[in-house]
Amino acid sequence: MANENKRRGLRRGLFYYLKAARADGSGIAGHLVNLTDSGLMLMMEQAASPGDRLAILLDLPPGFETWSPLALDLVCRWNGPSVTPGYRDVGFEFLDKSLVNRTLLARLLDEVGFTGS
């Protein structure tokens, strides 16, 4: 089966994992591992499958209190094993590509991200 992974942006790891809660209130979806300008990767105990949609509330770090939690609508593009036992790494594409979200996510990358992951 061919890999459908078509990431275009530079993947940026974060200095610490940010908690992502399910927007429907049913618990924690996972933890944010890295970001690009078009999507993100969550480390999840219960992986999503390609095509699954997920709405999350992302807890933002200090300095972002005005926007925290950030509501994001996502669609799963892939999943695979995580280096953390009991978890899966799951790649999502942003469905909401509004200027406000793009600007906020770019600032988040600049302030808490690093290159090379």
Short description:
The chain is built from one helix and seven strands; from the N terminus they run E-E-E-E-E-E-H-E.
Derived from helix and strand composition plus strand pairing, the structural class reads: mainly beta
Count of distinct structural domains: 1
Beta-strand percentage range: over 45%
Name the average pLDDT: 82
The geometry reads as globular
Helicity level: 10-25%
The radius of gyration is 13 Å
Query: CATH homologous superfamily name?
Result: predicted glycosyltransferase like domains
Predict the CATH topology.
Thrombin, subunit H
What kind of sheet is the major sheet? 6 strands, antiparallel, barrel
The first-level CATH class name: Mainly Beta
Q: Which regions have little confidence, pLDDT < 50, spanning 5+ residues?
A: none
Which CATH architecture is right?
Beta Barrel
**Total beta-strand segments:** 7
Query: What's the tally of helices?
Result: 1
**Helix and strand sequence:** EEEEEEHE
The quaternary state of the protein chains shown equals: single chain
